[in-house]
Amino acid sequence: MTEDPDRLPGWPAETGPAFDARRTLLKGAGGLLLLAAGGLTWRAYDTGVFEVGQGPAYEPWQSWQGDSGVEGSLALVRAAVLAASAHNSQPWLFRIAPDAIELLADPERNLGAMDPFRREQHISLGCALENMVLAAGAHGYAPAIEYLPGRLDEAPAGDPLMPAARLRLAPSRRDISGLYAVISQRHTNRGRYLAGRAVPHEVIWAFNDLAREDESVRLMLLQDGEKRARFDKLLVEATEGIVADPEMIAASNAWFRLTPGEIETHRSGLTIDSFGLPPLSRAAVKMLPKPEPEKTHRQWVAATRDVQLATAPLVGLIAVRDPYDRAAALRAGVFWQRLHLWATSQGLAMQPMNQIVELADRQRQLGKEPEMAVRLAELLGDDRWQATFAFRAGYPAVEAVPSPRRGVDELILEGVPQAPLEERPLISEQIGF
Ligand SMILES: Cc1cc2nc3c(=O)[nH]c(=O)nc-3n(C[C@H](O)[C@H](O)[C@H](O)COP(=O)(O)O)c2cc1C
To answer: Does the global pTM surpass 0.70?
Structure first.
């Protein structure tokens, strides 16, 4: 398969076909400067061509360390909102008490048909939890996590607002982890990776060491060989399966923010900047009209196969005992965030690639043959564990940029936690650094 650096290496390739047009355009006109001089400057402005990571939607990346002396535990929330989340849905809300922070799943923010059991929503909350734990140490707290027990596939319809986890905070000496230091440098990288640059053994050992820190998760890493080929094939077929499901595509597209206006209004979701394109291609894609859906879907499949998988020296699966157990989903998120932060500290690029698990959930929701789940289980090869998250890793050919974030002000719930929540027994866990 030939590698095409111009192909959109993003998700539902809303912008994919623009590449064909872009090539023609740039060839004929001699590049973006000429385009602008030719009277398209207004459109460049309108579509934010010249803005990358600018404006209030990106401000949380600047101010996240706050003022430790003044802010108290609010600083932990500022770190939490910089975590990864499925489709950048940021499905979190927080309630602050003097000695604890409650992390709640926002019932309004889920991916519908892309995440019918809110498994990914809870993985996302786990990512936020990890950032909070790291920030707790840095701000002089000893944190202990309490997870809400229960199953995601038995949740009542119209799930009420309830905590997913609680972080108990006791005053302690400050403990600034190296992972804390890179919280604002971690970004999902959907671009090409340096295909010729392998991930060294030491990195793979370190990934496995991180996985061993939590006995509730397992990590499978694949570089090449028969299993890697099966992983790639399955991922491409899952992408094709999602593209063929109009409800999944609609649910995914609902989180795309293609103009500066949409970005500032929502301060969440996926932007053109987050697709990992080289700067010129990124600018060109923003200038061109929105392409036809069928073509964009073909481009997404092709980009998954020919760019993202083709240039990734390493892929991996995170497995848990039961992906529909609330605490297990959160812990998978804690682990992913930790892994990605550590990789960031080493100059590695990473991208979750969850089409297989998403389609498995969808087949389960619709009561279809569990084809994806069966093939994923065969790949994992250990029936005590089930994959809940997939990713790729490598060295970046293009730097990833920040994605928008909502500020903490709109995420803090006021008031004393309701009595039933306090009575609920949570699974407790002591954290060590
Ligand atoms: C549970 C979960 C699932 C995700 N799945 C995908 C995926 O399949 N493909 C992808 O490109 N990014 C995926 N992401 C990455 C998010 O889209 C990303 O974290 C979000 O857009 C915020 O961007 P950032 O990580 O650069 O801060 C996933 C993240 C999480 C936490």
So the answer is: yes
Query: Could you tell me if residue 7 is inside a domain?
Result: no
Residue whose CA lies nearest to ligand 1 atom number 20? 88
Asked whether residue 3 is domain-assigned, the answer is no
Asked whether 267 lines ligand 1 (CB < 6 A), one says: no
- Is the CB of 86 inside a 6 Å radius of any atom of ligand 1? yes
User: Could you give the CA distance from residue 93 to residue 148 in angstroms, rounded to a whole number?
Assistant: 15
305 and 285 both lie in a single domain: yes
User: Are 343 and 355 in the same domain?
Assistant: yes
Distance 327 CA to ligand 1 centre (A): 20
Q: Is 131 in the pocket of ligand 1 (CB under 6 A)?
A: no
d(CA 210, CA 222): 16
Å from CA of 107 to ligand 1 middle? 19
Per-residue pLDDT of the chain (433 residues; tens, 9 = 90+): 333 333 333 333 333 333 333 343 333 333 344 443 434 444 555 666 767 888 999 999 998 987 655 578 899 999 999 999 999 999 999 999 889 999 999 999 999 999 999 999 999 999 999 999 999 999 999 999 999 889 998 766 566 787 899 999 999 999 899 999 999 999 999 999 998 899 999 999 999 999 999 999 999 999 999 999 999 999 999 999 999 999 999 999 999 998 899 999 999 999 999 988 888 888 888 888 877 777 788 889 999 999 999 999 999 999 999 999 999 999 999 999 999 999 999 999 999 999 999 999 999 999 999 999 999 999 999 999 999 999 999 999 999 999 999 999 999 998 645 433 444 445 545 443 2
The response to whether residue 354 sits with its C-beta less than 6 Å from ligand 1 reads: yes
3-state secondary structure of 62: coil
Say if ligand 1 is within 6 A of residue 11 CB.
yes
Question: How far is the centre of ligand 1, averaged over its atoms, from the C-alpha of 412 (Å)?
Answer: 23
What is the number of structural domains in the chain? 2
Taking the C-alpha atoms of residue 366 and residue 376, their distance in angstroms, rounded to an integer, is: 18
In a domain, 149, yes or no: yes
249 and 270 share one domain: yes
319 half-sphere exposure, CB direction, 13 A CA radius: 21
Residue by residue, DSSP assigns 31-49 as SHHHHIIIIIHHHHHHTTT
Structure tokens at 269: 């979701």
CATH number at residue 94: 3.40.109.30
Residue 35's CATH number: 3.40.109.10
**Same domain flag for 337 and 424:** no
Q: How far is the CA of 56 from the CAs of 66, 258, 336, in angstroms?
A: 16, 16, 27
Verify whether ligand 1 is closer than 6 Å to residue 287 (CB atom).
no
Tell me, yes or no, whether 167 lies in a domain.
yes
- Residue-range definition of the domain harbouring residue 208: 18-56+185-394
Q: CA 251, 82, 219: angle at the middle one, nearest 5? A: 75
Kindly state if the Cβ of 270 falls inside 6 Å of ligand 1: yes
